[in-house]
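S1.2 Input.
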Amino acid sequence: MGRKQVIDRQNRLARLYLIRHGETEWSLSGQHTSRTDIPMTARGEDGARELGQHLRDIQFARVVTTPRQRARRTAGSAFG
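S1.3 Output.
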């Protein structure tokens, strides 16, 4: 196998980004939110938008989230 073929295969590797939801009142106090569907704080909303700025040059094939509002809003603010 030639060097070009190896490089081409490496360029096709997928990347997986794992992103945690923005800050909530419970994450501030160290509580585990689990299934509780609580909203993000204003700081969490700002952080999600800032995340979007950092990731703006990356083309994502798919964005998947849990059904919790904090996860959906983080994804919507970052990728929306």
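S1.4 Remarks. The two ends are 42 Å apart (CA to CA).
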